[in-house]
Inverse folding.
């Protein structure tokens, strides 16, 4: 029984990785991203953010999540390999951090808001801060 379970888990993981390939950004998603980042410049990536930042999250598309930190700074996260169907209407991300932080490599779940069923999962990338020049961190 164990070998069969391992084969099934491996096959499911491979299917998820294949379906999570990043694709081109739609015009609307590009416009939304540019609107959020206008006037801000990228800083050095950080590996983790406090998990309470997930309360002020904006999903741009399957490839980009933004976390707001006040008016002058936003963190951009591009999940490793994308995160389908995160950018589709009716879905959200569920974080279950064990350490009080969201970190690169953490697995988040894409959840259907109506049924509350898990529709997929993905791995977070680095958090890149975008900040208005001349403002304090």
């Amino acid at each position: 029984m164990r070998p069969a379970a391992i084969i099934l888990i491996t096959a499911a993981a491979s299917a998820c990785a294949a379906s999570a390939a990043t694709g081109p950004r739609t015009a609307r998603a590009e416009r939304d991203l540019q609107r959020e980042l206008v006037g801000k410049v990228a800083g050095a990536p950080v590996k983790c953010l406090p998990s309470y930042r997930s309360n002020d999250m904006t999903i741009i598309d399957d490839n980009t999540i933004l976390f707001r930190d006040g008016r002058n700074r936003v963190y951009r996260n591009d999940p490793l390999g994308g995160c389908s169907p995160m950018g589709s209407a009716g879905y959200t991300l569920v974080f279950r951090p064990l350490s009080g932080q969201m970190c690169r490599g953490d697995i988040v779940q894409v959840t259907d808001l109506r049924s509350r069923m898990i529709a997929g999962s993905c791995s977070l990338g680095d958090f890149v801060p975008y900040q208005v020049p001349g403002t304090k961190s």
User: Anything to note?
Assistant: The beta strands are 41-42, 48-50, 57-61, 64-69, 73-77, 91-94, 101-103, 107-112, 118-123, 127-131. Helices lie at 2-19, 27-37. Residues 1-21 have pLDDT under 50 and may be disordered.
